Structures are given as structure tokens and as C-alpha cells.
Amino acid sequence: MSHDLPLYQPAAVRAAGDSGGCGVVPARVGPEERHLARALLDRHGAVVLTGHDTTADALVVAAAHLLGGRLRELFPLRERPSRDAGPVHLHADSFDLVVDIGGVQRRWRDPDEDYVLVQCLRPAPRGGDSFAADACRFVDDLATTAPELHDFLTAADVDLYGAWAGLRGLPATPRVARHVEHTRAGRRIVRRTDGAVPLHRDPRADHVAAMLDRFTAAVHELEPALPRFRLDEGDILVLDNYRCWHGRDAHHGERLVRILTLRSTDAR
Q: Any idea where the TauD/TfdA-like domain is (predicted)?
């Protein structure tokens, strides 16, 4: 595999669709070429690692190999079974969840999980293909195609998880943030969560709610034109969760994935 292996579709192919050049097709890296995986992830925001066993420690080992000394915090592994399921829309993994274990509060999920690893344990017999988008490119395009939405995403504060305020373990304190922000290390964050709502008693609440609906519609409209790729058994999709959104198509039959989210040393 060459360091110049393109991650994105060729420009002529991108121009034929409506994805605006945001579509991502991760390079597939086998066990003998894993030294390239870190460079590809840093350069393009996504990579697929092939040839892994489906053991519970595969994701942890892969994260350690990829990030090395940049690895700061791992969150609990979680499995996602689905059967005859509808699509999962483009999103960035993040949540704000604290639990009590033996009288000690532990953070179970974090709003600033900056990398996510998804391993296919059992692919669906029909459907279930994955798709991904470069969210930074999407936002940059909005500056020209939808400047009002661009201004909202970059300048308006929202409550990121307010739609789920009744969930046990979710802190009562609103998580106030903008959809597009930067870390102290200079990394750009482009958030995508279904939990965002206007701040309590925000005088522009109606406008914020309308813009959130417009944002969701724009993301959903992007999805059909994105290129698809399939995860086979054992494949691990690794994403820069600040930069790339991901989703999957509807599927028939059973599908099972295991997910690991984490924070690196240059997370917010």
C-alpha cells in the first residue's frame, strides 16, 4: 500500500453526486501494513483495519497500536445488536453519562470522545453497508451554499443533550457548546447529535429549533449520495470522531458490532 493511497473518491466521481466532495471511503489496511494506519487516520480521518479476531480485546489493542502515547482514556466497550433494522443516520459518537459503581462516580461516556472504533462481529446478510462523511468539508461548503446554517453551527450555543434530560445518569447541568468548536491543541470539532435542543429560556429558542431541524435535514439529504463500503467480520472502522460522521444503511437479518470510544491527549 502506498502512502498516497486516496481515501476519497476521485473528483470526477464526486462531482457526479450531491455529496459535495464530503464522502469518505476509508483505506483498508491489513495486518502486514498496520504501520500505515496511523498516518492514514491522521491524514484522512478514517481507516479500516482488517484481519482482526473478534475477541473482546481486539479494539483495545488496535487503539493502543494506533494512538500509542496519545491514548488518554478508554470508555467501556459496548455491543450493538440489530435485526431487520432501519438506517442509522450520520452522527458523531458522544454522550455525557456518569454512573455510580460501588459508591464511586465514574464517567461512562464523554462529550469529547475524539476517536471511535467499530468492529463488525457479524455482518448483516443483506444491507447494512456503512457510509461516512468529512464533516469539516461539509461545514466549509455551507459557508457558500447555506451561510445562515453555517453561522448557526459556528456561533450558536445549544444544550447538546437536552433532548435526553430525563435519562438516568445524564447530568442535570446542561452541556452548553457550539456544533463547531476547536480544542486547545487546534483540532476542529464538528458535532452531530440528535440530543441538541435550545438552551432554557433562550430568547431565540424558536430560531435555534428551526436551525436544528434544518441541520438535520441537510445531513439526511447528504446521505444518499455518499459512497458505501462494507465491513466484513473482524474489520475495524476507526474514525476521527471530531472530523468524520458515520452511519449505515438499513439491513435484513442480524448484524452485530462492538464499539469503543476514547479520548486522546489532544482531545478537548
A: 29-256
